[in-house]
Amino acid sequence: MNIHEYQAKQLFTVYGVPVPKGDIAECAANAAKVAEQLGGDAWVVKAQIHAGARGKAGGVKLARDAREVAEHAAEMLGKRLVTHQTDAFGLPVNCVWVEEASAIKNEFYLSLLLDRESERLLFVASAAGGMDIEAVAAETPEKIVRIPVHPAAGLQAYQGRQIGAALGLGKEQQVQLPAILNGMYELFLSKDCSQIEINPLIETEDGKLLALDGKINFDDNALALHPDIAALRDASQEDPKEAEAKQFDLNYITLGGNIGCMVNGAGLAMATMDMVKLKGGAPANFLDVGGGTNKDKVKEAFKLILSDGTVKAVLVNIFGGIVKCDVIAAGILAAVEDMHLTIPVVVRLEGTNVEQGLAMLKNSGLGLTPAEDLNQAAELAVKLAQEVA
Ligand code: ADP
Ligand code: MG
């Protein structure tokens, strides 16, 4: 689960990581009020969405007076912000964070993540902060240092000095760094984070280190242990179809193509995606109905797949192991009949009760296209989708 920058900054404060003073606002008038309460002579208005790269997309703006703060807020609020980290539709801006503007001397990159390879938490730091860290990693990997933390020993003082040296910090800033590193480390462990990123961490003109941006991801599987974190969820930032699928215990992922795919099991889903691609097509989504499915769940699954307006054909690829093929067939028929489906549906069933399932599809008179194997199913789905398109 992701949270907003302002929520990350509130957590940073609790864990002793310094951030600029600021507050959130849900309307332009309140944004101006926040600026007045903060005082000072310059503020930054920041659109709150679950994506980065807002700066380049007009989601981070400097204001010199309260009127300008209100103007920027009015421009951002109620719209969708598209950045290169969102899809083409962007994400809705329901609130802005107004904070004091900092006089920036240096921008650094600092993050803490779980490195599965070394099985440790890993600090990643770079003096080339503020920009696209993926580009730094690709073009100048020597500018990034990685410091793994041994779980038994915990974060050591010398590691703080290593990170400070890599960032090229002066003495005064080096003294401030341990509080930031320890805060990140403690926050990561106590709230079951999967990543904490500060980009940029800045040195101000008057020598202070501040987290100017904050991004935190949490391990979904641990959310039940942290109701305070779970409460930070903002469903408006999530794919509505993926959220709806979760309600029905279905795993749904939006992709970019035009073939809707209904499968069971992650492995079969991957194989199905590969086959569709191999045959020259592109999946619009994939929906994993899971192991213990029933007729109603299959029907919901169908509705979700088709709610994606881009779907030109549906490919069903189910292995009846725990769930039986005739149950799947009944669900498909109920959905197709209910929804007066006009686009082609290719069905490949295999496993328990496959004969009954296929006979039900064949005798339905609903014009479904059965396939004998995955190869043929993918080929047919791609061909029929092209014909419809
Ligand atoms: P994003 O990563 O989504 O683009 P950031 O919060 O990192 O958003 O802001 C982008 C850039 O805007 C920062 O690298 C920094 O240069 C500038 N910026 C952000 N907040 C402030 C601030 N409070 N004062 C001055 N500059 C800021
Ligand atoms: Mg940033």
**How much helical structure, as a percent, in the residues?**
25-40%
Summed up, the domain count is 3
Predict the CATH topology of the largest domain.
D-amino Acid Aminotransferase, Chain A, domain 1
CATH class annotation of the largest domain: Alpha Beta
Structural class computed from helices and strand pairing = alpha+beta
The ligands found in this model are: adenosine-5'-diphosphate, magnesium ion
Largest sheet: 6 strands, antiparallel
N→C terminal distance: 36 Å
Number of strands: 18
Shape: elongated
Strand content: 25-35%
Please name the CATH architecture of the largest domain. Answer: 2-Layer Sandwich
**Mean of residue pLDDT?**
93
> What is the name of the CATH superfamily of the largest domain?
ATP-grasp fold, B domain
Radius of gyration: 26 Å
Total helices: the number is 13
The protein's oligomeric status is: single chain
Unreliable parts = none
Give short descriptive properties of this protein.
389 residues, 38% helix, D-amino Acid Aminotransferase, Chain A, domain 1, alpha+beta, binds adenosine-5'-diphosphate, Rossmann fold, 25% strand, 6-stranded mixed beta sheet, binds magnesium ion, Dna Ligase, domain 1, elongated
In short:
With 389 residues, the protein is of the alpha+beta class. 38% of the residues lie in helices and 25% in strands.
Write the layout of secondary structure elements.
Blueprint: H1 5-14, E1 22-25, H2 28-38, E2 43-47, E3 60-63, H3 66-76, E4 80-81, E5 91-92, E6 96-100, E7 104-115, E8 120-126, H4 133-139, E9 144-149, H5 157-167, H6 171-190, E10 193-204, E11 209-211, E12 215-218, H7 227-230, H8 240-247, E13 251-254, E14 259-263, H9 266-278, E15 283-288, H10 295-307, E16 313-320, H11 325-338, E17 345-351, H12 354-363, E18 369-370, H13 374-388
Parallel strand pairs: 14-15, 14-16, 16-17, 17-18
Antiparallel strand pairs: 1-6, 2-3, 2-6, 4-5, 7-8, 7-10, 8-9, 10-11, 10-12, 13-15
The structure holds adenosine-5'-diphosphate (ADP) and magnesium ion.
Magnesium ion binds next to loops.
Domain ATP-grasp fold succinyl-CoA synthetase-type: 2-202
Pfam family, one: Ligase_CoA
Keywords: ATP-binding, Ligase, Magnesium, Metal-binding, Nucleotide-binding, Tricarboxylic acid cycle
